[in-house]
């Protein structure tokens, strides 16, 4: 199989990408496989900027084409927080569990229909020889009052997807990819994905 490199250390994210890319004929490699020592700082103020930072840093380091994803959860009742700070919302040690607890606490007195939110995913493709590109995908949902489901990662156990009548964490990786922010971003590229990833 062809290989595609994703500039991520998040194993849940990598699984999502495997579900999206394996059917297209690509094996997924991550920072853990190609440059474990790299720690790319996310200093941008938008998802797109951070995705570009991660993709460009690794593409330059490896001198090959690389994809990166910067993503997060925007909660309307919290004015869009945690947004680009989603990974570290409850602290630098990056705990999905603590992040969820913090969101549930902050929304304790917020009732439907005011618990609306969306996942956002910016995907960047960088290469030593081509112009960089970014695309954005989103997925609308509602923050539940408690966790349900064991699949996925991050905020998936509290993100209710109305169109599926399930939590994101109750969907298989394939089902998630069909409706997720990440899947929707990839769909925007699909017509010329092979060309974009060929590095010619
Ligand atoms: O930067 P990399 O190494 O890719 O890994 P990360 O986890 O730090 O990734 P981001 O900086 O893009 O932050 C994304 C955070 O947003 C949340 N998130 C993004 N996509 C998600 C998804 O599909 N399901 C649940 N939570 C998600 C989750 O908390 C992630 O840690
Ligand atoms: Mg990150």
TrEMBL record:
It catalyses: XTP + H2O = XMP + diphosphate + H(+); dITP + H2O = dIMP + diphosphate + H(+); ITP + H2O = IMP + diphosphate + H(+). The active site is at 70 (proton acceptor). Binds 1 Mg(2+) ion per subunit. Its EC number is 3.6.1.66. Its cofactor is Mg(2+). Homodimer. Belongs to the HAM1 NTPase family. This is dITP/XTP pyrophosphatase.
